[in-house]
């Protein structure tokens, strides 16, 4: 038997990282969106890729001023905010573990543990390492895995 975990919102509190990167990226491109807009889009489904979600929300909420960012431009801005720069820490530094380490370790004694996430593999591995839970999970299915 195996327990499969989602990362964002299940293992990791992303309210100050991914969600904030969506809001700040949208604002950068002139779109005023809210946490409620993000929540509604996520609830509708098909919004697991936060770069694409941000792009879609920008285009749905942007005031027409003649400019329209590409998905590549949106992704670049999002990543600068999330990953950080040499002069600015990334929003990923704000992520915290939701379940207790003790609970995860107890479950891992009874079950094989895996992660299925829409995150890029590098972001998944970073979170597992920084939160000290990499040893608990035997497999991670990430964005690149389709």
From TrEMBL:
MF-aspect GO terms:
phosphoglycolate phosphatase activity
What is the scientific name of the source organism? Guillardia theta (strain CCMP2712) (Cryptophyte)
Q: Which domain of life is it from?
A: Eukaryota
Matching entries from Pfam families are given as:
HAD_2 (PF13419)
Q: Which GO terms describe its biological process?
A: DNA repair
Report the PANTHER family cross-referenced here: PHOSPHOGLYCOLATE PHOSPHATASE
What name has this protein been given in UniProt?
HAD family hydrolase
